[in-house]
């Protein structure tokens, strides 16, 4: 059993299953709620979800969020806004990352085309890398595409360079994607 600082336990039987409706859902089994954990939580959110809305919001993310939130035991932050292109990441979102115990990064074909997602990723790596609390999910992309920035990830970075985003920022995003892609995670082709 793996313990979370909020003093409840997530059992090791975490995994994906296919239901009779043929969708994927993540099952977490939560238990053991000491009273002090409920009164003085260390983290505002147990999980921060980072995802590209156009790829996953109405399908995979909605099911994942539902499963995480089902027992009201795992407090999950999910940004519900559809963002306009070029919008900067909000201070509230940066704060939500800082106040989260764990981040689930859902890397999908268009993830890297969003500067917002990449800025989120940089903040997640900054806050959580040392604690080993980042879980990547490779949704419709091979981990090697993310790690090496090939395919749609290469195309996205070509577009970012054409938009005159600083070389330093682009290199930071690439380094962060590589770090996250090298972590143990889940690949949707194995669900």
From TrEMBL:
Residues 43-191 form the TIR domain. It comes from the Eukaryota. Pfam families: TIR. Signal peptide: none annotated. It comes from Prunus dulcis (Almond). SMART domains: TIR (SM00255). The lineage of its organism: Eukaryota, Viridiplantae, Streptophyta, Embryophyta, Tracheophyta. One of its GO terms (biological process) is signal transduction. This is PREDICTED: TMV resistance. The keyword Cell division does not apply. Transmembrane segments: none annotated. InterPro entries: TIR_dom, Toll_tir_struct_dom_sf. Keywords: NAD.
């Amino acid at each position: 059993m793996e313990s979370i600082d909020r003093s409840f336990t997530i059992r090791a039987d975490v995994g994906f299953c296919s239901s009779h409706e043929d969708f994927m859902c993540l099952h977490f089994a939560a238990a053991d709620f000491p009273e002090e954990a409920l009164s003085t939580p260390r983290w505002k959110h147990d999980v921060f979800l980072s995802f590209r809305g156009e790829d996953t919001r109405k399908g995979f993310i909605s099911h994942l969020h539902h499963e995480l939130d089902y027992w009201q035991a795992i407090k999950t932050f999910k940004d519900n806004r559809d963002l306009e292109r070029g919008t900067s990441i909000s201070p509230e979102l940066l704060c939500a990352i800082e106040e989260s115990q764990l981040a689930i990064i859902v890397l999908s074909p268009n993830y890297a085309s969003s500067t917002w997602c990449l800025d989120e990723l940089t903040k997640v790596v900054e806050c959580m890398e040392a604690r080993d609390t980042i879980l990547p999910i490779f949704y419709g992309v091979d981990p090697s595409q993310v790690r090496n920035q090939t395919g749609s990830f290469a195309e996205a970075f070509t577009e970012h360079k054409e938009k005159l985003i600083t070389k330093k920022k682009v290199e930071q995003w690439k380094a962060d994607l590589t770090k996250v892609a090298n972590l143990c995670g889940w690949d949707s082709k194995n669900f």
